[in-house]
Amino acid sequence: MKVLIIENEIYLAQSISVKLNSAGYNCTIINSFDEYHDKKHYDIVLLSTNTANFLKAVEHFKHSIIILLISYISTDTVSNPLKLGASDYIQKPFMIEELIRKIKHHQDFKKFSVQNKAYKNYIKSRLETIKIPDYNFKKLKFPIIIKSNKQSSVDAFVFKFINECDIMLSYIDLAVTNSVEKVIKSYIENTLLFLSNLQFLKPLEQERLFEFIKNKSVILHTNSNIPNSKFQYINLNDDEKDIISNEILTLDEYAKFIILKYQNVFSDTELSKKLGISRKSLWQKRKKYDIKKK
């Protein structure tokens, strides 16, 4: 990581540089923004508010992590630079270890922000074509059990819920070992807990789970009927199985799924070849399943 230190107290600048170099950072020192001529990109800028034109430096490096090195707290040294794009500040004199802690904190925050944006865009692209019934999400009462043969439908329901209600999400797959223990240990208040594959739990485990999640913000997914449940129950009525459901598809169900998903991707010749059938059989299956090709 490249660090630019803009500081006119040369001893302080050199001391910071030595410590950061030993921690794996690559440091450059200049006395003020007026000396910046190399036009290189710096991941982190340590900017003294005692240097000339430091606000111009903030504007120039606003896409980097900027930590202000200040002598006193005021509107000019803290509030205005933060509004322009600075990330944080530290008041002199300070311990180098505290400065490094702030640097690592903002590095992690920036990395997680980029990752979170990528994950959200990916999830949106995967789920935006999935149609689910309209619900008044803010009036739903927890816990909720959702029956669906398609994991993707439940995923679309859950992500639409957290977007509309602006709530954080936690997820546990109940098919894994000791999943109920994990639910009990990891539950966080004011967070929606999404539990999939309820059908994998044995009756005693289900009973223990149900007792724990009473009056908690939990959505459970199952592809089986849950008899005598006291929780709100939603059936998405998507009885048609797909390739990622937790049940084995018949050959007809598999063929129907593949035809629907890929008939507008491959030609009939390619599609019939991939299914191991003739083009005539492909036509007959379309007729049997009442599938129309655009």
TrEMBL record:
<feature type="domain" description="Response regulatory">
    <location>
        <begin position="2"/>
        <end position="107"/>
    </location>
</feature>
<dbReference type="GO" id="GO:0000160">
    <property type="term" value="P:phosphorelay signal transduction system"/>
</dbReference>
<protein>
    <recommendedName>
        <fullName>Response regulatory domain-containing protein</fullName>
    </recommendedName>
</protein>
<dbReference type="InterPro" id="IPR001789">
    <property type="entry name" value="Sig_transdc_resp-reg_receiver"/>
</dbReference>
<dbReference type="InterPro" id="IPR011006">
    <property type="entry name" value="CheY-like_superfamily"/>
</dbReference>
<dbReference type="InterPro" id="IPR014483">
    <property type="entry name" value="Sig_transdc_resp-reg_prd"/>
</dbReference>
